[in-house]
What does this fold into?
Amino acid sequence: MSLCEDCVKGVRDEGNAEGKIESIGEIECHIATPTGDFPKHKVLLFLADGFGISLINSKLLVDDFARNGFRTVAPDILNGDPLPENLLESKCQFPFPDWLKLHGAEEIRPAIDKVITAPKEQGVTHIGRYCFDLAFRVLGRLHAWIGHKGRSQRS
It folds into this structure.
């Protein structure tokens, strides 16, 4: 997988996260639940980019999906090792190839599987997915997804 130049460009959004951090299947997740009535049998799985769920941008997007009626779960698929946030603001040197080797399918997929299994055990029958390049490569074929796939190719 390669990162395109735009994968590490951006700004840090401002705001306060409304969701909460919980553990699902031993995986830390940012979870946002709609305040009104919503379909309890559906969950949106938000798979963040390389900056992970610690970046406020991801949390605010998760919260926005919840405001629009979707219980949304964003697992830490990076095992607490996201890209440094200062990459958004500078052209600092960062060893991307080394970082990517530590965040391949073997490392990411188990976290995704654990977080998918737990809601199914609680009666969730539909799991939609919103993902970025890193998770897109790991997931392969999906029944339904929305995402930014960058320069990755489906294998």
Observations:
- The longest strand covers residues 126-132.
- The chain has one domain: 5-148.
- The chain is about 25% helix and 20% strand.
- Residues 128 and 143 are 8 Å apart (CA to CA).
